[in-house]
Specification:
Blueprint: E1 2-3, E2 9-10, E3 18-19, H1 23-30, H2 35-57, E4 78-82, E5 92-96, H3 105-125, E6 137-141, E7 150-152, E8 157-159, H4 174-188, H5 196-218, E9 228-229, E10 244-245, E11 254-255, E12 259-260, H6 276-279, H7 285-298, H8 305-315, H9 325-340, H10 344-355
Parallel strand pairs: 4-6, 6-8
Antiparallel strand pairs: 1-2, 3-7, 4-5, 7-8, 9-10, 11-12
Helix pairs in contact: 1-2, 3-4, 3-5, 4-5, 5-7, 7-8, 7-10, 8-9, 9-10
């Protein structure tokens, strides 16, 4: 940590790369006998692997950046660019804040998804954009050719069009947009290291708030929500409903080309692996399921009580960047008690973690 000459610390933020499609899926596709399908997966995998390695190498531990409550009339500052199937970012500006929708559906969906994410954080948590201080929200669509991913690169959102056979346009799921932008929120707050259990927590937090953004935008209660991440991304003919299921980890897909969803729901099924930065996209199913169980037990709108507890932990300054599941779980109990005393919320938090086998004592 350094200072700017006064008493306020200057927070060094971790450059990040976060793709919504995990490498174990791309690995499977890269070995497929269909050459075109394998090539697009391999190119995506090579791009993502290099970027993800840079992310881990450059990670630094930081203090949480504390943001003041946002003004009620805060508004997003969105700009959408067209990468023109190239990789130079951001590309050509095609829509900016306040402009009317155009003919490109990808542009319009990206613009709307940025807005939906901004709205949830502002109206539910009084947070002004990703950094809590009005950060402009930029996105580039039509990135590369047949690119099978969407990612947050530490500064902006980037969307591929998909290969059309396995994946459709990555702007098609608002929860995916919310997931990736929440990596930015984590970057500016707890800055969870992208490896092992802290990396799985990083992914899980993005899934949690990605799902809440979808639920908020659709006006869905916890029992009405599908609790799927990436619903609508899989092309017709793929045997699956999404990339992940928070309600039932391990059931999102079972397809000859993709393999079977490997996510565990409890610690009894925890996957120990050196791949995928220690299984960050796999073991995230455990804290994902804990949040679902909490939200289902409390009922109503999940972004309210359940979401507030998770948000308090993410932004409260006590969550270490190398936190394990037990560390996070204990902080959620503390946060529930701080907000709701010894009420049903605290009891539900304790029960949810117990059900997935994570200790809180």
């Amino acid at each position: 940590m350094t200072t700017n000459g006064g008493s306020e610390p200057v927070i060094r933020r971790t450059p990040v790369f976060c793709g919504i499609v995990p490498p174990h899926i791309l690995d499977q596709l890269a070995r497929h006998e269909d050459g075109a399908l394998a090539d697009s997966a391999l190119r995506t995998l090579q791009h993502d692997s290099a970027a993800r390695t840079r992310r881990r190498v450059t990670a630094v531990r930081t203090l949480t950046a504390v943001a003041a409550p946002a003004a009620p009339d805060s508004a997003p500052r969105r700009t959408v660019y067209d990468a023109g199937h190239g990789t130079d970012l951001p590309g050509t500006k095609v829509r900016e804040e306040g402009s009317e929708p155009g003919q490109d559906a990808s542009v319009n969906r990206a613009y709307a998804g940025l807005g939906a994410t901004f709205d949830l954080y502002l109206k539910a948590y009084e947070r002004d954009s990703v950094d809590g201080n009005g950060l402009a929200l930029d996105a580039s669509v039509h990135y590369d050719r047949d690119y099978d991913n969407a990612f947050w690169n530490g500064e902006q959102m980037v969307f591929g069009d998909g290969d059309g056979e396995i994946f459709t346009d990555f702007t098609s799921s608002v929860d995916v947009i919310g997931h990736e932008l929440t990596h930015g929120v984590t970057q500016y707050t707890a800055n969870l290291e992208y490896y092992g259990q802290s990396g799985a927590l990083n992914e899980s937090v993005s899934d949690v708030f990605g799902s809440l953004i979808k639920q908020y935008s659709l006006g869905q209660s916890a029992d009405q929500a599908d609790w799927l991440i990436g619903e609508g991304l899989l092309a017709p003919g793929v045997r699956g409903v999404a990339l992940r299921s928070m309600k039932a980890p391990g059931t999102a897909y079972d397809d000859p080309r993709l393999g079977k969803d490997p996510q565990p729901a409890t610690m009894a099924e925890y996957v120990r692996t050196s791949r995928d930065n220690g299984g960050v996209h796999i073991n995230s199913g455990i804290p994902n399921h804990a949040f679902y169980l909490l939200a289902a037990a409390l009922g109503g709108n999940a972004w309210e009580r359940a979401g507030l507890i998770w948000y308090d932990v993410l932004t409260g300054g006590e969550l270490r960047s190398d936190a394990r599941f037990t560390d996070f779980a204990k902080l959620t109990v503390t946060a529930a008690r701080a907000r709701f005393k010894e009420g049903e919320e605290t009891e539900a938090v304790l029960k949810a973690w117990a059900q997935v086998g994570v200790q809180t004592g």
